Amino acid sequence: LTGSIPSEFGDSLKLQGLYLGNNQLTGSIPRSLGQLGGLVKLNLTRNKFSGPVPTSLGNLKGLSHLDLSSNFFDGGWPRSLGNLSYSTYLDLHDNKFTREIPQNLGNLAQLEHLDVLRNMLCGKIPEKICKSRLEGLVSQSGICQNLSKISLAGNKDYNLYLSSSRSKGPLRINISMFQQPLLKLTLVDILEDGGFGTVYKATLPDGKTVAVKKFSQAKTQGHRQFTAEMETLGKVKHQNLVLLLGYCSFDEEKLLVYEYMVNGSLDLWLRNATGSHEVLDRAKRYKIACSSARGLAFLHQDFGLARLISACETHVSTDIAGTLGYIPPEYGQSRMSTTRGDVYSFGVILLELVTAKEPTGPEFQEKEGANLVGWVFQKMKKQQADDVLDPTVLNAGSKPMMLKMLRIAADCVADNPATRPTMLHVLKLLHEIVD
């Protein structure tokens, strides 16, 4: 469609939804649209509208969904939008709005989604916003988004809010502490350093401890792709998955903020280099295997990550990264993430649980196979599977369970992805060990 919106649209008093997005419409919004008292949804995204937003839109008391994104609207923030008391969704990104967001926006107690990316806004966010369903506190300039979807990137000197999920309550994070060079960050411990980046232990101003993943520069992507992926991850809630509390992006830095796991990593407990941890017995290792498989099966089946990956949408990155030893061999050619690739990585972890050995390392230089997977296959081929089991937990009672876990792991790390089981089947096989 081309041209402008006829002012006569304002005479359609029974109209409940007006969807004119993804066209070539121009001009301004007719003031007469403010007469549509029954309007619930107004979508004008991706057109060429310009000029200020008419104050008459504030008369649409029943409007719950307003999308004016990707146009050329300008002028000050439309103050009348603060009158939309039933609004749950406001999207005004990619326009030319100026000045600051008015205080009355904080009156929108039902608001769940606010996006004003890439405008020319400045000033402070109204204090009352943090009491709405958006949740959370944000400070200093930059981009910061939470699982309740507040997005104000690409503006000027904004204070932004980052929050946890509603069930956990707001998580207050001072984003300015992440804006300094790495050496100046108040991140006291490196927890992990892998192919995707470095994970730090960080203490927030309120004393809360979190894990912050800082992506390596080589693996960062554009803001839109990053946001899409994080919004997908933000929907994931499962007892066997670490909770993503929030994420932020400023300049070229991209950070994820996770719950901090106080008991440490599996690597720490399996290798126990300091001798400060008790040995993981077979029951604990089996529980770890089942819990991990359950979380991954949820991602693949219930959450639908398999469909997301297969569709190759921007929600899931196809840029392969990871830690050496866990990356499936086929990724070297296809450069495409797959659920069967996840199964391979899980299989390596399962091998670690039964052998207590790292996936790669100097110890394999003098052994057949060159790495953990290759070494295990060589031993199994020679009917010497017992030799790979961790001697610290190996006894007459644990041996049958450990060997069954080893066989499941071997299926998971098969060279041919098509022969690997699904995670749902892996979970079933693990349960059958004790059934």
List the helices and strands and how they pair.
Layout (H helix, E strand, L loop, with lengths): L1 E2 L13 E3 L4 E4 L13 E3 L4 E4 L13 E3 L4 E5 L12 E3 L4 E4 L13 E3 L4 E2 L21 E4 L3 E2 L35 E8 L2 E7 L5 E7 L7 H11 L10 E7 L2 E7 L6 H6 L10 H21 L2 H7 L19 H4 L4 H17 L16 H10 L17 H14 L10 H12 L1
What does it look like?
There is one protein chain. The chain is of the alpha/beta class. The protein folds into three domains: 133 residues, Ribonuclease Inhibitor (Leucine-rich repeat, LRR (right-handed beta-alpha superhelix), Alpha-Beta Horseshoe); 78 residues, Phosphorylase Kinase, domain 1; 169 residues, Transferase(Phosphotransferase) domain 1 (Transferase(Phosphotransferase), domain 1, Orthogonal Bundle). Helices cover 23% and strands 18% of the residues. It contains nine helices and 18 strands. A six-stranded parallel β-sheet has the order 1-3-5-7-9-11, with no helix packed on it. The radius of gyration is 26 Å and the shape is elongated. It starts with a strand and ends with a helix.
